[in-house]
Amino acid sequence: MAWKTLDQMDLAGKVVLVRVDINVPVENGVVTDATRIVKIVPTVKDILAKGGKPVLLAHFGRPKGKVVPEMSLKPLVPELEKALGVTVKFADDCIGGPAKTAVAALEPGEVLLLENTRFHAGEEKNDPELSAALAALGEVYVNDAFSAAHRAHSSTEGVAHILPAVAGRLMEAELKALEAALGNPVRPVCAVVGGAKVSTKLDLLGNLVSKVDHLVIGGGMANTFLVAQGIDVGKSLAEREMAETAREILEKAHAVGCAIHLPVDVVVAREFKAGAENETVAKDDCPSDAMILDAGPKSVEEIAAVFEASKTLIWNGPLGAFEIAPFDAATNAAAQKAAELTKDGKLVSVAGGGDTVAALNKAGAAEDFSYISTAGGAFLEWMEGKELPGVAVLTK
Ligand code: AMP
């Protein structure tokens, strides 16, 4: 797939609407983590350097189509100015009089931030009238919010049908990384899917078996697969009613030649708490009063060997209850192995999804991965093979 980018667009003297994700955490009016703001800097600076006038479109929280003063974007202006090093002006509404006046008054070198797009009920309905009102403000549309691209909203999709639309730098980086991992990857490709439940990741597993060469299944969801193989997992978290579905996934994998890797040994405990007394047993030796909380060292060895045999890795979900030591051991060891291979230039590694980012950070491995997506829902939908409306519209 090819996306249009800022490089294909003449921006000199043009008003450029830029959809960004600056939905940052704020406590008592102060931004507590400015990561998302820092990440939009390259795009905004590029637009300024090309002589364009950036007008930022963004949502903040879930005001559900009403003006909720606590969800105003205005308090973010100082943080934006700090990150961008230029004057950032603000308009009290993202369309209509306030927005038009502010756009008209915008001087070259300045940036304008428009109020929360979700203050309008039309935003989440992708209302053509709202899309037209937004489009009327500018001449070019840039989408830099991959994390919001799984939603067809006015500011993420509707407006892109009206104005010439391109991907911003952050969107471009994300799409390149994702394309390298699943779209057009160097093979063999290995996917790691972990986490609590099979039921929340069915689409993901279904899509991956047909695309990857190796699928490592870990975490609570591996227990469901063990149950599907007739193994007693004691008091472990497992969705016993999903056993048939798990069997179908195993059969599909077998049919298409995707090797499935389940734990061969497991770490079991009687309590779900940090430091709980535990032992490592074979996968079919979980005592009836114990629960599986992590993959064991032999499983980790097998996973490491799969990583070594792979050229591309895509990872979502921890291999065990990573929040409570020592049940973070398998996740940590596997993450560190992937980081090491990536650092040595032997592996392209892409990971994403809420808990995964936390788990890889905790393992001290995130820095060395080729790409870590913080896009949560959009990343998962992409891994599920779904078309993201905000991305699709940039390819036309
Ligand atoms: P998810 O949000 O589906 O990626 O699931 C992540 C959660 O799964 C984390 O909170 C882990 O603690 C939990 N988890 C992983 N493995 C296990 C396990 N064997 N038993 C219970 N919870 C687990």
UniProtKB/TrEMBL annotation:
Organism lineage string? Bacteria, Pseudomonadati, Pseudomonadota, Alphaproteobacteria, Rhodobacterales
Query: Where does the UniProt annotation locate this protein?
Result: Cytoplasm
Gene Ontology cellular-component terms listed: cytosol
Oligomeric form and interacting partners: Monomer.
Q: What residues does ATP bind to?
A: K201, E323, G353, G354, D355, T356
**What EC number(s) has UniProt assigned to this enzyme?**
2.7.2.3
Q: What domain of life does the native source organism fall in?
A: Bacteria
Q: What is this protein called?
A: Phosphoglycerate kinase
Q: Which UniProt keywords apply?
A: ATP-binding, Cytoplasm, Glycolysis, Kinase, Nucleotide-binding, Transferase
Task: Please state the pathway this protein functions in, per its UniProt record.
Answer: Carbohydrate degradation; glycolysis; pyruvate from D-glyceraldehyde 3-phosphate: step 2/5
The residues listed in the UniProt record as binding (2R)-3-phosphoglycerate, with positions renumbered to this chain, are R36, R118, R151
Q: Which family does it belong to?
A: Belongs to the phosphoglycerate kinase family.
Per its UniProt record, what HAMAP family does this chain match?
Answer: Phosphoglyc_kinase
EC supergroup of this enzyme: transferase
Q: Which reaction does it catalyse?
A: (2R)-3-phosphoglycerate + ATP = (2R)-3-phospho-glyceroyl phosphate + ADP
Residues that, per the record, bind substrate: D21, I22, N23, R36, H59, F60, G61, R62, R118, R151
GO terms in the biological process aspect are: gluconeogenesis; glycolytic process
The GO terms describing molecular function are: ADP binding; ATP binding; phosphoglycerate kinase activity
